[in-house]
Amino acid sequence: MRITVENANFHYKKGRKNLPNLYVNPINFSLDTGEVMAILGPNGAGKTTMLKCITGLLNWTEGQTYIDGKPLTKINKRALWKRIGYVPQAHKMVFGFSIIELVVMGRAPYISTLAQPSKVDIEAAYEALTLVGIKHLANKTCNEVSGGELQLALIARTLVSDPEVLILDEPESHLDIQKQVVILQTIKQLAKERGISCIINTHYPNHAFYLADYVLMTAKEKEVVYGQVEAIMTEQRMKQFFDVDVKKVIYEENDSIVQTMIPRALSK
Amino acid sequence: MKRWAKIVLWLLPIIIAMISFSVGRFDVSLEHVFKIFASQFFDVEQTWTEMEERVVLNIRLPRILLALLIGGGLSIAGASFQGMFGNPLVSPDILGVSAGAGFGASLGILLFGQNFTTQVMALAFGIVAIGFTFLVAGAKKNAPIFMFVLAGVITSALFNALISLTKFVADPEEKLPAITYWLMGSLGTATYQDVMIAGPLIIIGMLILYGLRWRLNILTLPEDEAKSMGISVTKLKWVIIFAATLITAASVAVAGIVGWVGLIIPHVARMLVGNNNQYVLPVSIAIGSAYLLAIDNLARSITATEIPLSILTAIIGAPFFAYLLRRSRGGWT
User: Fold this and answer.
1) Which UniProt keywords are listed (chain A) (predicted)?
2) Per-residue CA distances from B56 to A87, B34, B187, B195, B303 (Å)
């Protein structure tokens, strides 16, 4: 599946007045099957809003998202959400559902309004939990498991509807480094082995290096740039967008070239 | 939940209902109760008096049916609202239905006395109140849920003021006590007509909510997340509000304002079966109907005059809620 955004922009409204556009220039990008795009930017850049607009949770005020060339707004919602999975940041739940109950919810597009999940749906949920490696937690409640495990459960919840695109909103923030690694590896595996395209919001340049084929970088009152990782992620841009001096380091490890960025202020 | 526990749970309202027929000022033995019911279908030798038969069939039966319906109805409405608003402190009257229906009934009593017209007015004003709440919240597509809650507070305040106004102008000898007593909730005047008015509305509301019980789990999530499961969140919320309003307004129309049941019972249900609304909703019906029936039995038997329901539900409910609050320390799950 190919997801394309053309000449898109968004502005909020205050009463009847239109506020200025959130992004300085219109957003354009295109993502094919199994490709990963990272949206990189500091806080307040409008990253979450952008994800919501891409998926139609908010409507672009200009431009449009296309799925295989068809405008997203023309696609039936239930059909659309079988193909797209949205993974929010892990958060505390008011009602502590068990992990399996939470994951089954992802089957909703396949279950008619008055029906209950069937055996097939519950099996799909267990399968998804196995895939992300937390099947043993199925009967724990959401508020008993760690943030990282809950994040994996939220990813599993999107996998049960067999999506072609995953949209992930800072899935690795607020997690310790080991959990971050697990989440990133899981995402990469889904993209490479299952051909699921991913659009992921992140603060961390190194995570973009690890995961992404393309990067869309933006910051408050800065232009939106989009392109291949190497082309976009330069020392000058990091200075310009994040207001931080970084050193880009390239080295070889296990026969592959690894890139990373280190803030110069921390390299003393 | 174990199978036997489920069976016990559903036997509870049935057993209490059977006992309820022999509870009250007028003594009817359980044996006579069974025989009276059996005689409706089979030939049974008459060992009971005509008086006993009238009490059981014409007075106690409609009253027991209403208590079961209203107790179960308010509880499932409360459980549904708590899920939908993602807040366990919500009760079915959060959007102002009870206050509106209460005003309709007060006005009805003031103008026409206690009769059918009064009940229709209670129903109508319950629905008017919800409409008003939506108007205040600005029922645009994406009005956030707290707008509805605040609008409900405003609506309740307004209609409570109007209730006070009807009390203020009411004749203190006759109308004022009728209104006051009625607002505290009672099943003392329950008739088959009441069952025919409220029964179908409450049952329709219950069936709708029961059908949506799994979808309700998804509605407890933040709105964007719920939408990303491909469900029409707004439409679903409207349907749930409609169903809960139907139940609450119909209950107020025939029994006055019965507080606390819709708030407390869902908590008891969640303590027993966890947070999955697939189970919370039916269990709420079972416990709620048994609970209100038991309360009503107390109301009509502990003193010579009937005690209004809301007094008892609060006296029992408030300490229990305090216990829940202490036990959970504000974390409800």
Assistant:
1) ATP-binding, Nucleotide-binding, Transport
2) 59, 10, 15, 15, 20
